[in-house]
Amino acid sequence: MPRFEQRVLLGSLLCALPGVMVLVLMALFGTPGTLQIWGLVVLVVIGTALLARWQFRRIMFPLYTLAGLLEALREGDYSLRGVQGGALGDVVYDINALADRLQKERLEFEESSHLLGKTLAALDSAVFVFDDASRLRLLNPAGQRLLDAARSQLFGRSAEELGLATLLQGPSSVLLTHAFPGQQGRFDVRHAALRSNGRGGTLLVINDVGRVLREEERQAWQRLLRVLGHEVNNSLAPIQSMAGTLASLMARDALPADWREDFRGGLDVIAHRAAALTRFLSSYSKLARLPPPQRRDVELAGLIEKTARLEQRLPVRIESGEDLHVHADTDQLEQALINLLRNAVEAMLPGAGTVTIRWTRDGEHAVIDVEDEGVGLPPSDNLFVPFFTTKPGGSGIGLALVRQIAEAHDGGVMLVARETGIGARARLWLPLASEAH
C-alpha cells in the first residue's frame, strides 16, 4: 500500500481511538455512574477533535502544497519547487521533475523562437504566415519592406486587404512580374499549407529574383569586360607600338636603307595581331550565337564512333556500352564531343598515349566519359569561363561551348582527375530519350 494511503488509514484509526478506549474500559470495569459517563464523553469528544484536526492537517497541507505547485504550472511559472519527503513525497518529486522538464522545454522553445526570428530577419525573401481565415499572423522585415507599412498596420489584416490574395490562390510556385507597394519587379512566389494547434494556415514566400539576376548579370559583364579588355589590349598594344615606330621612321628626312624591310616587318606584326583579334571576336560570336538545339532521336554509339574517327593525331579507344538513345541536336552534340576529344588529345601532345571514350547509363541519363593520359587538370577554377585558357594560342571557348550545349540539352559537364593513373576525365551527361519522343 502506498505510503500516503497508509498514513491516511493510520490517522483515521487514531481518530477512533478515544471512543474505543472508553468502550474497553467500560467492558473491563463495568458501567460507571452518570457523572463519570459525561466526563468520559467530554474526554472522547475532545480527544477525537484533536486527533481529527491533526489528521486534517496531515492530509490537507500536502494537498495545499500540491495545489499551489499545479497552479503555478498552469500559470506558466516553472520556478516553484516543493519540499520532497513527507506524506506526498513521491508526488512532489514527480511535480518537481515535471516543472524541470517544462522549464527546459520553455527555454528551448524561446531559444528556437529567437533563432527563428533572427533567421527570418536575415532573409532577403519576404515571408508571410496567414491563419485559416487568411489573416496575417507573422511576417519578417523583408515582407514589411515589400508592403511598405508598419507592422501594427499589417497584423490581423486579410490577404485580400494586403493585396496578396491572388498570390495565395495561384499555383504553389510561380515566377511573375508584380508591383507591390514597396517594390516592383520579377518575383518567385511560393506558398504552402500549414497546420498549428489543429487549425490550418498558409505560408507565403516571395523572393526578388530580379535583384539576383541583376547581380549575376553585373558579375557576368565584369568578367566578360575583363577578358575582352585583356585580349584587345594584347592586340592593340603591339599594333600601337609598331604604328608609332613606323610613324617615326616616316618622319625621318633620309630614310634608312632597310626601311622597306622595317615597314614590311611592322605591317606583318600589325596584320598578325589584327588577324588574332579577328579570330578572338569570331570565337566570341560563335559562343554568343549558339542557336537553340533542334532535337531528334540520336543513337549514341553511332555518333560517338563517327566523332572518334575525326581525331587522327592520337588513337582513340572506344569502350562500347549498351544501346542508348538521347533526344539531342546531332550537330551540337557532335561539336561538344569534338571539343572534349580535342582537349584530351592536346593534353598529351607532343607525347603519346591513348584517349578513351565510353558511355554508360546512370538512372535517366546517358553519361559519356572522355579520359586522357596527360598531365592532369590545371590548378584553376576557371576552366569553364569563356575565353579562359591554359594552352598557348587557345581560344578559351571549347569547354565553355561544351557546357553551353550540355545545359541547353538539360544536361551538364564536369572535369575531374582520374581515380587511377595520370590524366583527367571529362564527363558529359544528357537525359535519355523517352518513348514519347
From TrEMBL:
Residues 227-434 form the Histidine kinase domain. This is histidine kinase. It comes from Dyella nitratireducens. Gene3D superfamilies: Histidine kinase-like ATPase, C-terminal domain, PAS domain. The lineage of its organism: Bacteria, Pseudomonadati, Pseudomonadota, Gammaproteobacteria, Lysobacterales. Its EC number is 2.7.13.3. It catalyses: ATP + protein L-histidine = ADP + protein N-phospho-L-histidine. The chain crosses the membrane at residues 7-29, 35-54. It is found in: Membrane.
